[in-house]
Design goal:
single chain, 541 residues, Glutaredoxin, eight-stranded mixed beta sheet, four-stranded mixed beta sheet
Length: 541
């Protein structure tokens, strides 16, 4: 009897040890294989030693009711297995990840809807390659393919199918090749995540990278955007905190080509110019330059102006063409401000419109370190040959004001008086101006109506390298760019990086979750088995 009991405890002990070794070392470790082997031998020994009792139990329990109960348990188990296998093929899935890793942004949805021809994604991955990053990559690509039937995802083993890997110049597993109408772009695994060198935390940016790749392949001829230089403007190539390298790199990724524009060295603005960007000119813009810009606008050109408190007053000669003007002031917030950031840091309120509606729906704020109020020209002072649609974008609170005193601003002791601008202040505008009796546009078309566009923000720093990734700063700026480029379909909310650290599971953590999930199923069965045995013992009594 002692031998029989010992064999049972030995088998159970080896089973527990095998599970622990599996969690720690994995299935293919020698110690795990040896432990599982000994467990099987122990259970076989237990069955041999208790052969008579086991046969007697099944003979006594072989009733129709017991058979049906076993059949029901088997059916439940089979249904669960079937649902698990089927779930991999279902197009509707719940995204329960903490960072919403598989929930697409409005931009991605819009891009995928625009795919009308076959678009192929080739994922080069060996079956034995396993890691959370690879799982994330594959699941995200599956989500792309599920959103549009024109998107086809194909998994290729680069070892078994080495000729194809060679054709696509894939040298290692984990690479995804996006192919459309003969053009292709390869995205390596390392491009879809960032690892913090100090903390080891991982930021997942697969959607951002994949969507940009698809847009690049779908894009038509790039738009040419010219940055005005020569007046102390912000530097688009500076990677420092106050530079603008980050936001202009994002612009370049959106099928836009950036150029510098020095109006003193050329006779006129290039014909291929789709937009002029003016970033806080602190020196005067000369009359001959202003004439070229005004002529460009009257032919249907678009201009984006970013102002600061230091902006030179000659910028008004451009703003007035579109019914706006700038008065030197500094926006002071007396209602909605963070004491730690000060009264000049503004979290403006959105005015509903095509460039702001999605930001409002997604509750994504914009943050401005300092800003100036922008004013509308009275109707009688606007150019008479145009019809204006002036669209406010951002406003400060009703208790804010625009400080106009340089002495108060420099001393840091500001207070509202009758010389200041009363809030709420408009911190951003978009303008459409339609002119009649214009025969030739910049594109060489003959027409009786030309539409010019302008956008003005009372802050330039909100898109510098320090601030452009905060809240909706980049989204608002890029949406405004697309409005000025007359690409309204591209106005959207863009994907963000997901700083999710819990998603990066180690191998032992993954195996533990597997055992834990299986244990839940076993615990589901145990009460039924316990009740069955208890009732059976009562019947015997």
């Amino acid at each position: 009897m002692k031998v029989k009991v010992f064999s049972l405890f030995l088998a159970l002990g080896l089973l527990v040890a095998s599970i622990v070794l599996y969690v720690v070392f994995g299935l293919f470790a020698i110690v795990t294989k040896a432990s599982f082997g000994l467990t099987v031998v122990a259970f076989i020994l237990y069955v041999i030693l208790n052969r008579d009792e086991i046969l007697r139990f099944f003979k006594k329990s072989a009733s129709v009711t017991t058979f049906y109960k076993i059949l029901q348990i088997g059916m439940v188990f089979g249904i669960l297995v079937f649902i698990y296998l089927l779930s991999d093929f279902l197009s509707w899935k719940l995204d329960l990840t903490s960072g919403r890793l598989y929930s697409f942004s409005e931009e991605t949805k819009s891009v995928l809807k625009g795919i009308t021809n076959d678009f192929n994604i080739l994922l080069f991955k060996s079956p034995d390659m396993r890691s959370p990053l690879l799982d994330y990559q594959e699941n995200l690509l599956k989500a792309y393919a599920e959103k549009n039937k024109r998107v086809h995802l194909e998994k290729i083993d680069p070892i078994q199918n080495s000729p194809k890997a060679f054709d696509y110049n894939v040298k290692e597993g984990g690479a995804a090749v996006f192919e459309y109408q003969g053009n292709k772009i390869t995205v390596d695994l390392k491009k879809i995540f960032d690892r913090d060198q100090e903390t080891g935390d991982i930021s997942y940016k697969g959607e951002e990278v994949f969507t940009k790749t698809i847009k690049s392949l779908l894009a038509s001829k790039p738009k040419n955007v010219y940055l005005l230089v020569g007046h102390g403007e912000g530097n688009p190539y500076d990677r420092g905190n106050n530079g603008f390298k980050g936001i202009f790199e994002k612009i370049s990724e959106d099928n836009v080509k950036l150029n510098q524009l020095n109006l003193l060295s050329i006779p006129e603005i290039p014909v291929d110019c789709s937009l002029i960007v003016i970033v806080n000119p602190v020196k005067p813009v000369f009359p001959e330059e202003l004439d070229k810009i005004v002529n460009y606008m009257r032919q249907g050109g678009s201009v984006l102006v970013l102002l600061e408190y230091q902006a030179h007053i000659t910028i008004n000669d451009i703003l007035r063409q579109m019914g706006l003007f700038y008065l030197e002031n500094l926006a002071i917030e007396d209602e909605d401000y963070n004491p730690q950031l000060g009264r000049t840091t503004i979290i403006p309120k959105f005015v509903p419109g095509e460039m702001t509606s999605l930001l409002i729906q997604n509750r994504i704020p914009v943050e401005m370190r300092t800003a100036v109020g922008i004013l509308e020209l009275p109707l009688q002072e606007r150019p008479k040959d145009s019809v204006y649609e002036i669209i406010p974008l951002l406003k400060s609170s009703k208790n804010s004001f625009g400080e106009t005193s340089r002495n108060e601003i420099s001393s840091g002791k500001v207070s509202f008086d009758k010389r200041d601008l009363k809030g709420p202040l408009s911190l951003g505008y978009a303008v459409r101006a339609k002119r009649q009796s214009v025969l030739n546009t910049r594109d060489g078309e003959t027409t009786n109506t030309v539409e010019s566009r302008m956008a003005v923000f009372g802050d330039a720093d909100f898109v510098n390298n320090t601030y452009f990734e905060r809240g909706g700063n980049a989204d608002l700026f890029l949406n405004t760019m697309n409005f000025l480029l007359k690409r309204e379909a591209a106005i959207t909310v863009r994907p963000k990086k997901s700083a999710v650290t819990g998603f990066q599971l180690t191998g032992s953590e993954r195996r533990f979750l597997t055992i834990f999930a299986f244990s839940i199923f076993v615990l589901y069965l145990m009460p039924g088995v316990f009740i069955f045995l208890k009732r059976r013992s009562k019947v015997k009594e």
